Amino acid sequence: MSSIFRFGPATLVTAAFIGPGTVVTASLAGANFGYALLWALLFSVLATLILQEMAARLGIVTGRGLGENLRLQLQHPLLRALLYLLVIAAIVLGNSAYQGGNLTGASLGAEAIWGDTAWRLALAEQSKLNPWALLFGAVAAAILWQGRYQLIERWLIGLVLLMSLAFISSMLLTQPTWSAILRGLLVPQLPEGATLTVIALIGTTVVPYSLFLHAASAARKWQTTDKTQALAESAADLRTAIPLGGLITLAIVSTAASAFFGKGLTLSNAGELALSLEPLFGASARYLMALGLLAAGLSSALTAPLAAAFALQGLLALNPQQFRLTWLLVMLIGITVSSMGLKPLSVIWFAQVANGILLPVITLCLLVAVNAKALGRYRNNRRQNLLGFSVLAITLLLSGRTLYLALS
């Protein structure tokens, strides 16, 4: 008998999409447009629930991750090569670049809490590296090195709960306008200049690498459990973790809206948001926001390398040593990028373009996989297909818009 709510593999998805990129995007959405774009966040959460349910079901029923299922389904050499190239470019290389942002975000949170400590300044002066990035990268690597799924899951549950406490508390301290929040959620509107922010809000929540991460982790979590029971537990997991992630993002948007919107102030990064809250709402707001940013950076620093390794393992049938080498390489690249202050804009731009192409492609592959006759009574029903293809259509439109803006 499963409970109504529980934490499980879906927590990895929440930990993955609530990273520094989401914190920055949500902060800018609130600072520049107030509560007007919350409807885009609501759509993102619903789309994530739809796709991640399919990914988890595929993993539970087949006992394989999404990458493995794609490898078995795609028999045409050219199609397989094109998909593999796209996945490696968007997820493996892209997550390597994003990992630098994850560690930088965690460092910004730490600096907002502790400031320029003597040991950090001394080490930075001697080595020209970012000590916080080295520390958090080492912590994340140590957790992943254990290779124990339950340990990783527990760490991520703890970090997600910490983010929830920090960001929701900071929102409550800023006393948001609740009627405006409700209107923003239920009444779609597109202020002038908000198109890119809408795309970014959706793009930071509905991401292809989370599908690989969730399918593989669900297959591991429930490999010896009765499928009916596993699916019930997975459903409870989804309705706990994904809406909680949406609530965290809503809290960030609302905090930034309360602090910046309509006040003639500008915001350039999330670390600046944390520092700017103190004169407006007191020291508690600053420290809570900074703590949330630190937790967001560290949680994504765990999931980004793991997702890249799961994707590559499924597609290329990597052995355990190669799996570990993959996430370790992503981690080392991220530490280097963050520690040396590099800004790999061209790599991130390329990864965003590749992700723009990859999301509808992977969504279509997922829909084909969960409609396979081999799944028997667990294959998609008519309602699930209607919802899935609706999300596919919208992701196609958004991807086309993203590519147009990126290439223009």
TrEMBL record:
It comes from the Bacteria. One of its GO terms (molecular function) is cadmium ion transmembrane transporter activity. Its main location: membrane. Pfam families: Nramp. GO terms for biological process: iron ion transmembrane transport. GO terms for cellular component: plasma membrane. It is a multi-pass membrane protein. The chain crosses the membrane at residues 35-56, 77-98, 129-147, 154-174, 194-219, 240-261, 287-312, 324-342, 348-374, 386-407. It is found in: Membrane. Keywords: Membrane, Symport, Transmembrane, Transmembrane helix, Transport. This is Natural resistance-associated macrophage protein. It comes from Alishewanella jeotgali KCTC 22429. The lineage of its organism: Bacteria, Pseudomonadati, Pseudomonadota, Gammaproteobacteria, Alteromonadales.
